[in-house]
Amino acid sequence: MSVLRKDFLWGGATAANQFEGAWDVDGKGPSVPDMCTNGSHTSPKWVTTAVRPDRLYPSHEAIDFYHHYEEDIALFAEMGFKCFRMSINWTRIFPTGMEEEPNEKGLEFYDKVFDCCKRHGIEPLVTISHYELPYALVERYNGWEGREVIDCYVRYCKTIFQRYKDKVKYWLTFNEINSGTMAMGDTLCTGIIKGYEGPVTGTVNKDQTRFQALHHMFVASAIVVKYAHEHYPQFQLGNMICFVTSYAYTCNPTDILKNQAQMRRMNWYCSDVQVRGEYPAYAKRLWEENGVALKMEPGDLEILKEGTVDFYTFSYYMSNCTSADPQAAQTSGNLAGGAKNPYLPASDWGWQIDPQGLRYTLNEIYDRYRIPLMVVENGLGARDEIEPDGSINDDYRIDYLRQHIEQMIEAVKDGVDLMGYTPWGCIDLVSASTGEMAKRYGFIYVEKYDDGTGSLARRKKKSFDWYKKVIATNGEDLA
Ligand code: BG6
Description:
The chain is 37% helix and 13% strand.
């Protein structure tokens, strides 16, 4: 008997800007990722202040889900998906983020996507804002630094809640909101890049701006959670954290304390606010030591209290270590690197593979919050080869996923209440960190390459049938 819930939400995860393409079709406006060029593991992608004719912008076509959604959702259904995590592209609905009236064509597109999911018995899990801030809000307000963006976001949410109230039950307010605590998040998450053109890793914002922008996002998230609870009791609202588990490199108490500080800033700060409805006790010192003086409006703290999420979701790919030793060998990772762990292998992009870390992480989160959890991203970014007979034997991906699912099941045995699992990039799509196509995660291969060429044809990888069996047996047969 499977230990997982009978209604466990098996599925896969995507984000609009990384797979829809059609960036300027049917009235869509430009969003931050539409201003991002391609890059690689060794050469960072850039954000530009205008679309430059001599640069390649991977989001513009991506894998063109916009025109392939029926075929793609049918393939997800063939694997047995119960759930499909996707995001709505804000600028399809409000092209600059500031209009009073929505763009009907944009709304119609997601009607069609949700109807297609329904025909296949697939439950959508919708990220409202997945690294897709309207670029006009960057130019006008310096992204989320501007308090005015709260109203823009609330208008957008009210519009999509009303439109899709009978089609969508599960919503996430912001993807990986905690990425806003670090440089990479300046572009991807908070959009505090007004006038900035350069590598996405090269922004020089101060923590003052970052934490102020995050405060506005917390308030925006809480307002819409409260609103949804009052108007649509059938909805479930979640947060979403990029969980970068870190271990103290040694048992030296200095390393332990440094790691605790790292875990708080990176992983706990945002969810403590979104789940508990208040800033944590350690926030005051964190702000003081980083030169942050938050500007709040009367009523902000009350709204945070009233708009706490119903479930907690996170991405988990890797772990790293924290060391007080400046000589400690370093490794890269999802949005943030750290000290290298000598016990762990790593992907070609230097992300350390740590399945047991997922069990540990699920337990840590559940101990802290005691609300249902969902792993909404996990997976191995790897280069795939097409064999002469057309097959793609991605055993390395199967191994990675199998080991993580095993540990997820152990965590459930430990007592964690787990709602579901949607591995990242269930169909190959553009990498968020590098803009590459070569970094593939999918069960479905897409013929699209780093130079922008490719037929866009879809083909099943070996992992496709493997995952189908995993879902069919509710995680009992992982062989
Ligand atoms: C998460 C993001 O950080 O990781 C996704 O929510 C992203 O948008 C995924 O694509 C994998 O990262 P990458 O950089 O390999 O695409």
